[in-house]
């Protein structure tokens, strides 16, 4: 090998070494931000969001059912009212009842819409959290895969990579929740 080839090889290796050191640095920062407590908190929050979503969906279904029943009652009353002759002196009482039911239907529709919006918000948060979990699992997997390669080189990078590697419980915790 000529001196020029050796110099270019050294330059290439030093650039590669620097790139690896930077990668290790940023991965180490990312792992520090995603500690065991952070992962557990994220998982528990995800479980809470899923249970809230199910509760809201069930309540939304109940509200939809009640709206349908009230609309049916309203239609029945209107058809009864049309069939009756206006000889009844208590017609104002029926109108009051109709107005109250109309207001209740309107209120329930508004409430149902707010629940549907809340369900959509929870769905989108859930999607974001799921993608974050997958990304973390891939990062943990890539770090654990890369751990063996750094040791075989026997370099300073291998020793640093060993410090960056996630604890086994993080990897198991993430993988168990992804399945």
UniProtKB/TrEMBL annotation:
Keywords: Cytoplasm
Compartment(s) of residence: Cytoplasm
Residues annotated as domain Centrosomin N-terminal motif: 2-74
Gene Ontology CC terms: cytoplasm; microtubule organizing center
Pfam families noted in UniProt: Cnn_1N
Regions of compositional bias (Basic and acidic residues) in chain numbering: 62-90
Family annotation (InterPro entries): Cnn_1N
Ranges annotated as biased composition (Acidic residues): 91-102
Major subcellular site: cytoplasm
Keyword hit for Cytoplasm: yes
Disordered: annotated span: 62-102, 142-165
Record's protein name: Centrosomin N-terminal motif 1 domain-containing protein
